[in-house]
Amino acid sequence: MSHEGSRGDDDLLARIAAGSQGALSELIARHGNGLRVFAARYLGNAGDAEDVVQEVFVTVWKQAARFDPARARASTWLYRITANRCIDQRRRRALRSFIGLDDIRDEVASPEADAEATTAARQELAIVRDGLSRLPERQRMAVLLRAVGDLDIAAIAEVMGGSVGSAEQLLVRGRRALRDHLAMAAAGRERKSS
Amino acid sequence: MTRDEFERNRRRFGDTVEAWPAPFRQQALAFMAGGAGPEDDPDAALDRLVLEATLIEGDDQALARKVLARIDSGSTRSSLLPRFLLAPAGLAACAAAILVAVTLAGYQAARLQDDLQDSELLALASGARLSGNGGADIAADPAEEDSL
C-alpha cells in the first residue's frame, strides 16, 4: 500500500479514536470488502465472515486509540485483528462440531454459479477456489493476505505472528500447492477431451 | 473490473490508484494494465488469479449500518461464552456439564461417608467406645490403638 493511502487510514483511525462514526463508516467503505473476502475465503462461510468483520470494526471502534502508526500500517493492523477473529471463529466452530451442535455448512456463494461452467476462464476460477479451500489453514491465510490484502511478506509475518522466513515459506508452499492443483485439473480436462 | 467500476472507485477513493485500499487497488492496476500485469512474474499472475477467484459481492453500507447498530446497542459479543450460552445448544451443553459435576460431587460425598463407616466398624472391632463423630477416639487414644 502507498504511504498516501496509509496516511489516509491513519487519519481515519485518529478520528475514530476521537469518536467519529463518520470516520468509521469511511474506514468500512475502504476496507470492509477486502476484510470480508479474506474472512469468507479463509473460513469458507460467508455468514461467519460477515459476523467476524462486524466484530472487527466494533473492535476498531473500541481500540482505535491503541493503534500506533509508528509500529504498523493500518491495513496490517486491520488484517491482524481479522485473522485473530477468524481463528477464534474456527475454534468456536470446531468446538460446536465436536459436541455435535454445528449445523453450519462450509460454503461461500460464488457469483454467477450457473454460468460458471460455461467458459474455461470461469472453470479455472472455480478450480482456484477449490484448490484454495484444500490448502492447510496457515498456507491459505498467507496466500489470501498476499492476494486479497496485498500485504508484503513482513506484514504477513506480523499478521500471522511469525517470522518473515516462516511467512515466506507458507506463501511459497501455498502457491506451489495451488499451481499443482491447477496443473492436475488441466491435465484431467485434457484427458477427458482426448 | 469494468470501466464503470473503475470510474466509480476513482470517485470514491481519489485519482491516485496506488492509494486505493486493497483489493480495489490490485483490480484497478490490473485493469489499467489491460487485464494483465507483468508476464515475467508468475507469483503476481497467480495472486491476480486468486484475487479474481475469491472476490464476492458485499454491501459496505449495510455492513456499516450493522456495525454502528451494534456499537449503539452496546451488545457487542466480546467473547465466546455469552453468545454460546444464549443458544439452546449452549444451554443444553451447560445442563449436561452441571449434571456431570453434580454426579461426580455425589460420588465424592458418598466415598467420604464410606470412609466414616469404615472407621466406625474398626472402632467396634477393636472394642473402642464410639463417640459422636465416629472413629476420632481411636486415633486420639494410643493405648487402645496398641490393643489392635
TrEMBL record, chain A:
Pfam families: Sigma70_r2 (PF04542), Sigma70_r4_2 (PF08281)
InterPro entries given in the database record: RNA_pol_sigma-70-like (IPR039425), RNA_pol_sigma-70_dom (IPR014284), RNA_pol_sigma70_ECF_CS (IPR000838), RNA_pol_sigma70_r2 (IPR007627), RNA_pol_sigma70_r4_t2 (IPR013249), RNA_pol_sigma_r2 (IPR013325), RNA_pol_sigma_r3/r4-like (IPR013324), WH-like_DNA-bd_sf (IPR036388)
Organism: Mesorhizobium qingshengii
Gene3D superfamilies, sorted: 1.10.1740.10, Winged helix-like DNA-binding domain superfamily/Winged helix DNA-binding domain
Record-stated family: Belongs to the sigma-70 factor family. ECF subfamily.
Keyword terms of this UniProt record: DNA-binding, Sigma factor, Transcription, Transcription regulation
GO process annotations (BP): DNA-templated transcription initiation
Domain RNA polymerase sigma factor 70 region 4 type residues, every copy: 128-178
Protein name from the UniProt record: RNA polymerase sigma factor
PROSITE patterns xref list: SIGMA70_ECF
TrEMBL record, chain B:
Parts of the chain that traverse the membrane: 84-107
Keywords annotated in UniProt: Membrane, Transmembrane, Transmembrane helix
Protein name: Uncharacterized protein
Organism: Mesorhizobium qingshengii
